[in-house]
């Protein structure tokens, strides 16, 4: 299936989920994540949930990372360059939603891509080869292309894999894992 069709299908699927569904599925995703062999790293990049898009609620993962005393990195998006700047999340970090309802740090201590060990990635759909479909602006592909080759890329999804995304680009960065409420896919 093509990306545009998958975006439309999975946006609709997400919008059908109730707040209670999103919460329960997000807890299941976090529990599945705990089974992965990725918890010995130091620096973890995570997205802050866009509630209006019914994304996986990353608060549960943030709690796990905090409990394990990990360095947590969040991003600020530049919609002119389609690049992200990354900041260390601390107790003093002030968060504000941007024009697209994305919660972002206002300022803080900037972290370079080469310091990031693990990235939790939002997505709408993914396939059995580890290809993903995001919102279509390429923010994550640009970001991931600048990370170290050994940076672990983990997609988070409420839904299971599609067989194949047919219009994958050479610039698309594949996942190492994708975690759903019921299963973990390894690529």
How are the SSEs placed, and which strands pair?
Elements: H1 3-15, H2 19-33, E1 43-45, H3 59-67, E2 71-78, E3 83-88, E4 95-97, E5 103-105, E6 118-122, E7 125-126, E8 132-133, H4 139-145, E9 152-156, E10 177-179, E11 184-186
Parallel strand pairs: 1-2, 1-6, 6-9, 9-10
Antiparallel strand pairs: 2-3, 4-5, 7-8, 10-11
Radius of gyration: 15 Å
- Which CATH top level class fits? Alpha Beta
| Structural class category | alpha/beta
- At the fourth level of CATH, the homologous superfamily is NagB/RpiA/CoA transferase-like
Distance linking N and C termini? 19 Å
Mean pLDDT reading: 96
CATH topology: Rossmann fold
CATH 2nd-level architecture: 3-Layer(aba) Sandwich
Q: Report the count of strand segments.
A: 11
Count of discrete structural domains: 1
Count of separate DSSP helical elements? 4
Question: Which band does the percent of strand residues land in?
Answer: 15-25%
Organism: Neotamlana sedimentorum
Family: Belongs to the 5-formyltetrahydrofolate cyclo-ligase family.
GO molecular function: 5-formyltetrahydrofolate cyclo-ligase activity; ATP binding; metal ion binding
Keywords: ATP-binding, Ligase, Magnesium, Metal-binding, Nucleotide-binding
Task: Explain what this protein looks like in three dimensions.
- This protein is α/β, with parallel strands linked by helices and 187 residues long.
- It has a single domain, classed as Rossmann fold (3-Layer(aba) Sandwich).
- It is built from 4 helices and 11 strands, in the order H-H-E-H-E-E-E-E-E-E-E-H-E-E-E.
- The strands form 3 sheets. A 7-stranded mixed β-sheet has the order 3-2-1-6-9-10-11. A two-stranded antiparallel sheet has the order 4-5. Strands 7-8 form a two-stranded antiparallel ribbon.
- A hairpin with a 4-residue loop joins strand 2 and strand 3.
- It is globular, with a radius of gyration of 15 Å.
- It starts with a helix and ends with a strand.
- 33% of the residues are buried.
- The mean pLDDT is 96.
- Pfam families: 5-FTHF_cyc-lig.
- Its EC number is 6.3.3.2.
- Belongs to the 5-formyltetrahydrofolate cyclo-ligase family.
- Keywords: ATP-binding, Ligase, Magnesium, Metal-binding, Nucleotide-binding.
- One of its GO terms (molecular function) is metal ion binding.
């Amino acid at each position: 299936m093509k990306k545009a069709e998958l975006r439309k299908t999975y946006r609709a699927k997400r919008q059908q989920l109730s707040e209670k569904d999103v919460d329960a599925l997000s807890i299941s995703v976090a529990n599945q994540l705990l089974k992965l062999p990725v918890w010995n790293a130091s620096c973890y990049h995570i997205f802050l949930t866009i509630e209006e898009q019914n994304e996986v609620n990353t608060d549960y993962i943030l709690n796990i990372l905090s409990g394990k005393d990990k360095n947590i990195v969040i991003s600020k998006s530049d919609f002119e360059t389609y690049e992200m700047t990354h900041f260390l999340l601390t107790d003093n970090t002030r968060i504000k939603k941007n024009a697209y309802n994305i919660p972002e740090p206002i300022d803080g201590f900037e972290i370079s891509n080469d310091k990031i060990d693990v990235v939790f990635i939002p997505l709408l759909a993914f396939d059995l080869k580890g290809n993903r479909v995001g919102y279509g602006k390429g923010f994550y592909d640009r970001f991931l292309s600048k990370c170290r080759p050994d940076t672990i890329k983990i997609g988070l999804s409420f839904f299971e894999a599609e067989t194949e995304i047919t219009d994958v680009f050479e610039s698309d960065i594949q996942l190492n894992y994708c975690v759903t409420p019921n299963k973990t896919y390894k690529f």
